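At your convenience, could you comment on the folded chain following this short note?
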Amino acid sequence: MQNYEEFSENQIKILEHFVTSTSSNVFVLRNLPEVIKGALFSRYSRSSLGLRSLLLKDFILNEDTAFSSIVGSISEGASAGEDEQIMAIKKAQNFYDRILDGYGDDSIGELGGAHVAIENVSMLAAKIIEDCRIGGSPLEKSTRYIYFDQKINGEYLFYQEPIIMTSAYRDLYVEVCNHLFDTYSKLIPPLTAIIEQQFPKEHHISKVAYTASLRAKVLDCLRGLLPASALTNMGIFGNGRFFENLLQKLNCHNLAEMQDLGKKGVQELSKVVPSFIRRAEPSHKYFQTYSQYQEEMQSEIKILIEEHSSQVKPMTEPGVRLINFDEDATFKVAGAILFEQSHAGLKELQDYCKNLPDEELAKILDAGSSSRENRRHKSPRALEHANFTFEILADFGVYRDLHRHRTLTQERQLLTCKYGFFMPKEIVGTDMEKEYIEAMEKAKSAYDTIAAELPEEAQYIVPMAYNIHWYFTVNLRALQWMCELRSSPAGHPNYRYIAQEMARQVCQVFPQFERFFKFVDYDGYELGRLGQEIRRVEKAESQ
């Protein structure tokens, strides 16, 4: 495609440092701070100039932007020093704020982003951070590849919640957390020996692949002993809008750890994307009204819960149940499949599909599924016209794994010890069973004591094996992806079961939808990680 922009030799030399091409109609920005990228794109949407011309005219050659101080010396190709760059961004803050405020669109905050590392936070905090899932991509330290029995200065790594640590429960909290880690550490060698004896290495399997899958199996069994206070690390990439929403929620959260993370997040992100997260600062009027809204809403809900919840029977048996769906989902999906390449109305197509014979309806659904060759072949958006709500009671470890799927609505209740805990079958009937149960009962007793006064803070002492109550509302397309991914052999057996059960229950209600779950794996695997580890080793050896 023709490029209508013309640049002088000097302009080309300048631009080459900031764009991957000075002539193609497709190019990528580089060597620019996020604050400039976001402001540049927001201006771009209302300018007749091309992006490169706009970058030159309104940013590089505009003294108000402090461009050279932020980016560094163009001629020398050097980056500005950290302190100099921070000062320059602050100096130019009003300029960038005028651009972002002037267009009055929150989506402008999605045009710049940042990579943030969050270290030594509790597993409970990691879930609260990951609740903000639109616009952010988190990665968390794995409990199946990393041993969590390390000590620093003779102490296990768990969050010492400040309110508990200054209360009468301090010694109880520390003692129980240490006992959970002690039990976790103590059971690793004997469980490894038992599983190794049950599934000895076959001669054709590499030692590296076998050892990795054996470790994953052992740690999958024992992760339930880790308390929610166990420290983990996270890496997050997110756009400005994501971080603004996240920081607002953290800064008005009831737990001290979240407030501390919110404060530090504002402090650090202000050095990189200040214009995007300024409304999350506690002094900003927007944050103050948001915080007041959250506080009043939560107070009203708590009053209503005390009035009504005791009259409703709780879900007590672990499992998955499909509780809501649209009986016309099949016709809605079929009509939506036909819509894109037709000229008919969507409503008329969906009504038409209601009156079709089953074999004709099947042909339409087959058209949207029969050519899929693997789970990475995404189904048409027509599947998003079918929605399902599942209610689930399962261990916190499983919730951690399934919670990360972003295209769904999910909500959980507070961590508690009232719903019982998961016992790995590999431990049942062995000498380890008694120690595992004792650790769980000790944690429950401590939780009950602390929760009577501090129900939110008491969550930190709950081991991951204890069941948590939550729900998912998800469309068929997202459910297909989740069930096919999470039922794969490499997955943890507990979440494999939930993924399998979700697909099974939908297919029971809508047999026509079974064709959309053809890559759900219903088989059982003892060393499920082994196949993937073998492929990883073979790939490494071939390079």
Q: What stands out?
A: Strands lie at 113-122, 136-140, 151-152, 155-156, 231-239, 319-325, 387-395, 409-412, 467-475. The chain has three domains: 9-111, 114-309, 319-323+383-422+465-542.
